[in-house]
């Protein structure tokens, strides 16, 4: 059987990721299973696979992006900001390719701080149409704690640090 990819996620009636009966049938027939998710989820899937089945697991990652100065000119700069926001919000901001840091090269028509401001505007709009899902309390607390550090930095040295964030939630944060 050739390697096949199942590009669709599903939830069981209980709300848990996957459906054990369906997964068992698929796992028994597949010669390769690719899974993305938390390290705990990956650790739970591997022992359920037949010994002959190849397993490619992609767990928790922190990704980054890079924006070259050449793409920071009109009219393309706005599209680059939109693309960056799409990458950030993908997979509830927890995907292995959802960047947590974006490096923006200087020397383009759009400066890095202006890029950050536009990204904040785009993320604010995205939160209205594609809201981030629920977050565990400990993750929300970590975001709030980290934000407070940058709020203080921005208040004391606004030329060196700028800060944008979602109102009344931890849905998104942009730091320059």
Helix content: 25-40%
Strands, count = 6
Q: Calculate Rg over CA atoms.
A: 20 Å
- Averaging pLDDT over every residue, what do you get? 85
The helix tally amounts to 5
Q: Estimate what percentage of residues fall within beta strands.
A: 15-25%
Secondary-structure content class:
alpha/beta
Low-pLDDT runs of 5+ residues are 1-16
Q: How are the strands of the largest sheet arranged?
A: 1-2
Biggest sheet statistics:
2 strands, parallel
Distance between the termini: 50 Å
Tell the overall outline. elongated
Give the ordered list of helices and strands.
HEHEEHEHHEE
Salient structural properties:
disordered N terminus, alpha/beta, 176 residues, elongated
Describe this structure in words.
This protein is of the alpha/beta class and 176 residues long. The chain is 39% helix and 15% strand. It is built from 5 helices and 6 strands. A two-stranded parallel sheet has the order 1-2. Strand 3, helix 3 and strand 4 form a beta-alpha-beta unit. Helix 3 crosses helix 4. It is elongated, with a radius of gyration of 20 Å. The protein starts with 19 loop residues before the first helix and ends with a strand.
Summarize this entry quickly.
The protein has five helices and six strands, in the order H-E-H-E-E-H-E-H-H-E-E. The chain is an alpha/beta fold and 176 residues long.
